[in-house]
Amino acid sequence: MATADTGDGGQLLQQLRAKGTVRLGIAGEQPYGYIGRDGKVTGSAPAIATKIFQRLGVARVEPFPTEFGSLIFGLNSLQFDVVAAGMYINPERCGQVLFADPEYQMKDAFIVRKGNPMKLRTYEDIARTGARMATGIGYAEIDYAKEAGVKKISTLPDQLAGLLAVEQGRVDVFAGTAVTVRNVVEQSRSSKVEATAEVTPYVDGEPVVDVGGFAFRRPERNLRDAFNRELHKMKRSGELLDIMRPFGFSEDQMTTLTAEEKCRP
Description:
By secondary structure, the protein is of the alpha/beta class. It is 35% helix and 23% strand. Strands 1, 4, 5, 6, 7 and 15 form a 6-stranded mixed sheet that branches. The protein has a 5-stranded mixed sheet with strand order 10-9-11-8-12, with helices on both faces. The mean pLDDT is 95.
């Protein structure tokens, strides 16, 4: 589908309506967007997208699974139409894609050995102890760890791989979003690891609360704006929280921040 920036805000919404299907880029990360045990796409982002695109006249969503670090490239190379992966909004990404306003805000958490023997409660603790940390490919947690002085950082495909790495002693800690970490620890029922309390990252000495949202190709302003209008209706009515709650989100993670605010350098 065409994505050249003709200055008219793009025609993708009309094309999607005619086709009846929108392709969602997902990264296999619970609870944001993944393929369930039944082989069907699930997660908070696909659930939101299904509702909104139906209201925009697009009947079906179709998943396009890829690695998190490949989502922006895949979007801009027309492999799919929208990133539906709870992607954090930051200035660097805003230079590459167009974000809808965020549907959630989030802090981090760690997967550690049961009892947290190294007492890892902050990124500074990881740096101070020289602990071996892992996180996901392309995750914001990489930069937060570097900012705190963490030296030993490796990347793994997803949070389940992170949990197994901690269980097996290959790393001391896996860092991810709080809801992701909580969910994988609960679902694994592991007796060897636990999730820490929420962790606040710091950048230039200032605390960071991240927000995540849907991403579109930069020329497609009309589609992004139409999506935003429906998203805001869902926020005002409480429907957004109703959709997200089964995936582990709470009222504390609802946000009124805008993409514009988070895109500022």
